[in-house]
Amino acid sequence: MADLQRAVDELAARLGRPLLLEDRVQRVVAYSEQNGAMDDIRRDSILRRHTTPDVRQWLRAAGVHEAPGPIRTPGAPHLGLLPRVCVPVRHADGLHGFLWFIDAEPAMSDAQVSEAAAAAPGLGLALFHESLASGLASHRELEAVTGLLLGEPDAARQLIEAGAFPQAEVVTVQVARPLAAEPSDPLRLALEQGLLALRRRLSGHHPLHLVRYDHAVLLTAGAPVSPDELHAAMPVPVVVGVGRAKTALTEAARSYQEARHAAEVAARVPGLGGTAEWARLGVYRLLTHLPDQELHPGLEGLFADAQYLPLLETLETYLDLAGSAVATSRALRLHRTSLYYRLQRVEELARTDLKDGNERLALHLSLKLARLSGRYLPRDLPGST
To answer: Which pTM was predicted?
Structure first.
C-alpha cells in the first residue's frame, strides 16, 4: 500500500494536479494532496473511503467500466459532481481500479491525460499484487479466527506465528449483535465495514475480527477496548457483550462464548444500557443456560395480563433491593402504604408468601428468566434490571 501511495504522490507532482485512486469496486485506495478544485463527492470519498451508490451508478452509466482508455465524464450538478477525467487501471486485461482527476479549474490538457494513461499499467500491476496479498491474508485470517472461536488449538498457533497476535498478551472478545430483527447480507456488510474501520484505529491492540450471520466478533490484545468505541464504529444499532480477558489466545473461545451470552442478555434486558460484561452479569450468567418453561406457577397469570405489570415491577424492585421496604419506596417514589398494598396483592394473586426465603428466591429467578424470554417486559424503572 505504501508503494501505491508513493506512486500516486509522484504522479500528482508530475501532473501538477490532485488525483484519487480507487479499486475496481470504487473503494478509495490512495489519494494525493487535494490542493485544486474540490467538490462534495471528492471530499466524501476521502472521508468515507468509498463513493455513494447514486454516484457509482452515474459514473457506470457514463461508461467508465467499459472504457479501454481515459474518458471524460460530465458533471452532475444534482449530485454535486464536477466533470472528471477517469483513467481505467488495468493489468492482464483485467480492470483493477480507476484514476480520477477533477476536470475543472483548469481542465486537463491532452498531454496530462496521456501521461496519466502511461502511468496506469504500473498502478494496475501494483493493485493486482495488493489484491492477491490482501485476499490471501484475509482468507487465512478468516479461517484461523473461525477455528480459534471453535476452540481449535492449532488456530492460535497459526495466528501467533503469522504475527497477527502477540504470544504474551491477554485476549478479550467482544460481540456486537444488531438490533435488527432479521439477519441479511446488507446487515453483514455494514458490520464488516464497521469492524474494518475500527481495526484501522486499533492497530496497537492487534485486532482480529469475524462476522457471523447474526453478530460480529472483535478480538483485541492487552487492555480491553471500550465498548463505546465498538458501538460508535457500527453503522447500525447494536448491543455489545464483553467476555472476560483470558491469559492466552488459546482461551479465546471461552471469552467468545461469554461475550455471546452477555450480548444476548443486553438485547433482552434494556436496563443494562446496550452493553453487558460477562463478569458483571450476576445471576444472568446462570439464567442464560436455563429453560424458562418452569417459572413460579403463581406468576403465570400475572405475566399474561398487562394490568398486573405495576405489581410485577414493584415485586422485582423489592426483591432486587433485598426486601427493603425503605429502599423500594425510595426507588419507586412510592408511599410505604401503597408499597405494602401492592406486595399484599402479589401474595394473594400469586398464592405466595414473601416471608418465605425459598419463595422469594423462586419469584426472583422467575422474574429474571421471564425478562430473558420476553414474557415480562417491564418499563424502564429506576433500580430495576
So the answer is: 0.56
SS3 41: helix
At 192 the three-state DSSP class reads helix
Give all strands of the β-sheet with 20-23 in edge-to-edge order. 28-31, 20-23, 94-102, 84-91, 71-73
Q: Which three cell numbers stand for residue 167?
A: 504470544
Rounded to a whole number of angstroms, the CA Rg of the chain reads: 29
Domains of the chain and any CATH numbers: 2-133 (3.30.450.40), 166-287 (3.30.70), 297-373 (1.10.10.2840)
CB 257 within 8 A of CB 238: no
Block residue for cell numbers 502511468: 119
Q: Which three cell numbers stand for residue 188?
A: 453483514
Q: What confidence tens digit (pLDDT) does each residue in 10-23 have?
A: 999 999 999 999 98
Rounded CA-CA distance 318/339 in Å is 9
Query: DSSP strand E in 92-215: where?
Result: 94-102, 171-178, 208-211
Q: Is 211 helix (H, G, I), strand (E, B) or coil?
A: strand
| Closest C-alpha among 211, 194, 218, 270 to residue 239 | 270
**Residue-wise pLDDT tens digits, 164-202:** 899 888 999 999 999 876 778 778 878 888 888 888 788
Cα dihedral 227→230→236→237 (10° resolution): 0
